[in-house]
Amino acid sequence: MIIRNLLFPLPLLSSRCLEQVFEIIDQGSTQSLASWMVMLNTMNLRKAEKKILEELFTSFHRRFCAEGVDPIAFLSGFYSDLIINGSTVSPTAVVAMLAHWEDTVCRTLRHALGPGNAEQGCAWIRSLILNVHALVLQMPLWPCKEEKTETEWKPPLTRLLNRVARGEAWQWAALVDRSASCRLLDAAMATPEGEWQEADMAFGQAMDLEERVRTVDRHTLCRSVAPGVDLVVKTAGLPGEETGFRVNQVAQWLSLCFDLSARITGPSGEAGDLFHLYDAVLNFDEALLQSRDLEEILSSTVDQVCRIGRFRRGALFWYTPLTRTVVGAHAFNLQREDILRIREYEENLSGLQEVMRSTTPVFYENVARRLPDHYVQTFHLTSLLFCPMVFEPRRPAAVLLLDQGGTPFQPEDRTVRLVHTLLCRASKPIATHLSGSPLPTSRQTPTVLTRREHQILQLIADGLDTRDISARLHLSEYTVSEYVGTILRKLGASNRAQAVAVALRRHLIQ
Predict the structure, then answer these.
(1) CATH of 288-435, one of 3.30.70.20, 3.30.450.40, 3.20.20.80, 3.30.470.10
(2) How far from the centroid of its chain's Cα atoms is residue 20's Cα?
(3) In this protein, which residues make up the domain named HTH luxR-type (predicted)?
(4) Which residue has the higher pLDDT, 17 or 385?
């Protein structure tokens, strides 16, 4: 497909304003990717699709920084990326990616530019994304599969597997009560079409499964989902890493269902003594080590902290300093969808602003005046413990909110210390995952020059002086001199000749 023109025209921007837009977006590349990775892990997608979307976001952002000033070239390049990945990701997921990128970029521009330039820049970005949306919706390569609607009632396990494990190479799955000689609680059988149906008692399938679950071989995976209750899955072949991950995911969801209202009971005596703290941290570390990706780490952290600390509810929010926004990420004993819908500017949350200046938990006996009224009323908030998670020195990047289901409470000091200890340990693997996929810059070089700086440096190498460059780029001589000063500083050069020499040695220019 050759893209010849834009469906939606782009607003006119001054060259200086457009240059500022690209420079700000380019400088925020790493934080933009980190924000998208967090958002990805709240989406109900397969692991392979999440990986492709992470790479697609990286490519999209890099192409924008390198080619966005030429929208036709930018759209053509992104179209090529879609063709390569068209059989792996759905158009809905790509549209969600574009919406997140647009939202993050526009929030960044509003904080970095003056009101007038910010609105002009956001209008330009929105028009560009409209053209990308049109491109996505015209793609002829998206796989189309009608989802069957369930018109009849089915057992919980069957319904769950049809939602999260359809198409997996599993033969059957069962919930087994180990405390009663492997008594079958629920079971589902895989069909040749890759869907799930309940085990038919009339044909003895359930009785046959009761016998099978007693025999564990290399094709059988077993995961505990509640005290005395196991999830047993029979795979068609030898289970690999992907299979193990999916089984762990299903087991985790089942565990949350079983224990939705349960609270962990500590050992006899004081729950906060040193032995309990030691034992709790060891168990928590084991859960972190078993987590395979960022999604598992975040969900395990929220779940374990609530259970070990005996909190009835918990909600994790991600803080993005680039846009100064707070976004819902995970929840315990709350509707996860309600938490994921929360996206607020930091300045709208006075209580949170105080917490973000701290590196230790902060308790508010009454949050009525510290959070917007609609949140207090919707979630019936009274007392609340704010627990920051620090990934970089001096600045929290996430915060976990804990309470007792809306009931006023006063946490013990030992409980606060316990929560703080657990979150400090969780922050290390989370930070590792977030920094494990750095977003390459548009120039693939450790020396970060903006597009305009790179352009001016090339003109200097071509022998143009300040006046010539000013005329060529329609900039004032003062502006060109400012750019030259920035270039010298970034390259560590004392004059223009030395800057050209450094740039040639680093292959920044030709």
Answers:
(1) 3.30.450.40
(2) 27
(3) 442-507
(4) 385
